[in-house]
Fold this protein.
Amino acid sequence: MAKNKIPDLPGKTVERLSQYRRVLYNSIEEGKTNIYSHELAKMMNLTPVQVRRDLMLIGYSGSQSKGYVIKDLIALIGQIIDSEEGEKIAVVGMGNLGRAITSYFTGKREKLSIAAVFDNDPQKTDRIISGVPCHHVNQLKEVIQKENIQIAVLTVAPEATHNVAKMLLDAEIKGILNYTSVPLTVPENVHLEEYDIVTSLEKLAFLVKK
Amino acid sequence: MAKNKIPDLPGKTVERLSQYRRVLYNSIEEGKTNIYSHELAKMMNLTPVQVRRDLMLIGYSGSQSKGYVIKDLIALIGQIIDSEEGEKIAVVGMGNLGRAITSYFTGKREKLSIAAVFDNDPQKTDRIISGVPCHHVNQLKEVIQKENIQIAVLTVAPEATHNVAKMLLDAEIKGILNYTSVPLTVPENVHLEEYDIVTSLEKLAFLVKK
DNA sequence: TGGAAGTTGATATTTTTTTCACAATGATAA
DNA sequence: TTATCATTGTGAAAAAAATATCAACTTCCA
Ligand SMILES: NC(=O)c1ccc[n+]([C@@H]2O[C@H](COP(=O)([O-])OP(=O)(O)OC[C@H]3O[C@@H](n4cnc5c(N)ncnc54)[C@H](O)[C@@H]3O)[C@@H](O)[C@H]2O)c1
Ligand SMILES: NC(=O)c1ccc[n+]([C@@H]2O[C@H](COP(=O)([O-])OP(=O)(O)OC[C@H]3O[C@@H](n4cnc5c(N)ncnc54)[C@H](O)[C@@H]3O)[C@@H](O)[C@H]2O)c1
């Protein structure tokens, strides 16, 4: 592994770093330049110690009097979690969810962009959707390799999940974010995240009934 | 607390129980009646020990020869995570995401239903969307209390988040699933879950670049 | 009949994640 | 100058989560 400047961070810390950056952008907009661990913690429903521990892990130091310098912290988080050249993303399945995600995400991050989307419905393909070209799914491998896309978001109809996943692996995708309710299994050199709103709601329902 | 039949389960176990049930439904459809821990584990990318541990926590016993009886297990998971009378949900913000979620979720679970949705755009209110009545947000408290809705999904425009959250708390909501990128803080008797696709994608990008 | 294979259930252990506790620092003001 | 205060950074402890290990049970088959 060539780049070894990246510390070996706990997964939870990586998620929080992304969230820290999000709220820090808001703070900048409000005109703040510095922030204390307890302020950041409050905004994220965490403890100040948790915040300091995370920042310690990425090697960032603040000052006791002024706290952390927001723009430096944002920059450092970027160095840690962004890739320098940027990372391209594909969304496969331009139904309700795929379109919602594409229109929401587009332009949100400098180093992460949705470079192509796919569907198998000719009504949707060969046009621009939310500023992104929509290709027919049978061009998936070609486009992914040409554009050097490494990450895919799966929002196809459930019954198409396994087929499309196979195509993605064949195109040597490196990470998949699976929103279909069909669980996937991938080789261990491919990173997989899954999310289902049903799980979140059932968890909430469980907590509420207690 | 009246109901004390509910074991005090780890949050992670609750999430997995919801997912077990989801894949078990699929297995039933494929004609299976019994399942071994290693099969369930494989489908969910877990270890068999993890599966057995979770089932132990809810007090379910299988047989060494036949494994677990799928329909019994589904029923028991239901007893644990579902509320008997069912739980009603509101979705606030009928934009792209709110509509995608509503159409996806409706009819998916017996004990969890989206009973009302809200928006502030007169073009969207006072009609049926994906089978659910859409009210103007200024009727939020009234409808939530009349329908006895305890859980809300927040998918409004970011700038409306705090206002709407305040209204939900005022209507004595018990759980909020927040999809806006604006972090919320709620009283501790209210349960809060947050999810943002940007976090998932940034985490994936981090893992991919390593 | 006996033993090999494969499974569950549970205790023990390890790993990961969070929290505690406090020394060190620097700013403030008496 | 010196005491006070709020803050950071971090080793140590605790809590939570995952994994290892293995006895006990069932089935099957030689
Ligand atoms: N994880 C969540 O929280 C969540 C929320 C909503 C929906 N979903 C899931 O996301 C998926 C999409 O949901 P939706 O509401 O957008 O459904 P949808 O029916 O609106 O969209 C599905 C899209 O997939 C396309 N498609 C079907 N087969 C395809 C194939 N082989 N190749 C390429 N595209 C194909 C269809 O043309 C359609 O555009 C479904 O699997 C649904 O279960 C998940
Ligand atoms: N968490 C995620 O992964 C994710 C993904 C996509 C979008 N989002 C967020 O979800 C929200 C909705 O996204 P979208 O793409 O559907 O946007 P959208 O603009 O399509 O929808 C927003 C809806 O909220 C309604 N609204 C605005 N103010 C309101 C108010 N005061 N009361 C009631 N309704 C109000 C609007 O009328 C509109 O229908 C945004 O905050 C967006 O940032 C999150």
In short: Chain B has two domains: 3-80, 87-198. Helices of chain B lie at 11-29, 37-44, 48-57, 70-81, 96-105, 140-147, 161-170, 197-209. Residues 1-5 of chain B have pLDDT under 50 and may be disordered. Residues 106 and 131 of chain B are 8 Å apart (CA to CA).
